[in-house]
Specification:
This protein is α+β, with helices and mostly antiparallel strands. It is 35% helix and 15% strand. The protein has one domain: CBS-domain (Roll), CATH 3.10.580.10. β3 and β4 form a beta hairpin.
């Protein structure tokens, strides 16, 4: 007589609904934001004080209009201070920020967001809801989610 099934008895409850880990669960909501009219010296000071690498730029209605990063500030430094040139009177965030900003949905799975980080080479994604900035997801936030999942389910 041959073996019919070598898998053993199957548990019918094995297909439990997997709880999704969403961007909203790990995004930062208490953000340091900037205005287009802020000076880059102010931005540099804030980046150093709060140990962040960049932040969203919003208008008076809290709508995202751009993002400013350390790299954007370094461009300003290399264009003026390095060559000991007088500082441009228009050294504002609005001149140096990136205007074409990729955003992310708060209901996206955190590991889909991780793939978006890898494919886009971004360090942060603003989270928008109804046209307003509600948070930001950074690569570090994805790492925090991975550690929590590892602690709960990985062996």
């Amino acid at each position: 007589m041959g073996i019919k099934s070598f898998q053993g008895k199957r548990d019918t409850n094995q297909a439990k609904a997997k709880e999704q880990i969403l961007v909203a669960d790990y995004m930062t909501t208490n953000l340091i934001t900037f205005k287009a009219e802020d000076s880059l010296d102010h931005v540099i000071s804030q980046l150093i004080t709060y140990k962040i690498s960049g932040g969203p730029v919003v208008n008076n209605k809290n709508e995202l209009i751009g993002i400013i990063s350390e790299t954007d500030c370094i461009k300003h430094i290399s264009e003026s201070k390095y060559y000991n040139m007088p500082s441009d009177t228009n050294n504002t965030v609005g001149k140096y920020m990136v205007r074409d900003v990729d955003t992310i949905d708060k209901n996206m799975n955190i590991f889909d967001a991780a793939f978006k980080f890898i494919s886009s080479h971004r360090r942060r994604f603003p989270v928008i809801e109804n046209g307003k900035l509600i948070g930001q997801l950074s690569q570090k936030d994805v790492l925090k989610a991975a550690i929590k999942v590892k602690g709960n389910t990985w062996k």
